[in-house]
Specification:
mainly alpha
Length: 67
């Protein structure tokens, strides 16, 4: 069972936006002084933001490849 493309895009877009909040805190706030937060942002959150952005940009192309 698949969801509509518009719903999928909406969910991924909001995850992308919400996931970017810790990166903003890392850049502009005191988060950079917390080692666990820095590791989470560097190795988990930022790669997920990049992947979700790429999926929003070229996801249709990847789906077309696997059809």
């Amino acid at each position: 069972m698949f969801m509509k493309p518009s719903t999928e895009r909406l969910i991924i877009r909001w995850l992308h936006i919400v996931g970017s909040i810790p990166v903003i805190g890392y850049i502009y706030g005191p988060v950079a002084s917390i080692p666990q937060a820095v590791a989470a942002i560097r190795w988990v959150i930022f790669p997920l933001i990049v992947l979700s952005g790429l999926w929003l940009w070229k996801g249709y192309w990847v789906k077309r490849l696997f059809k």
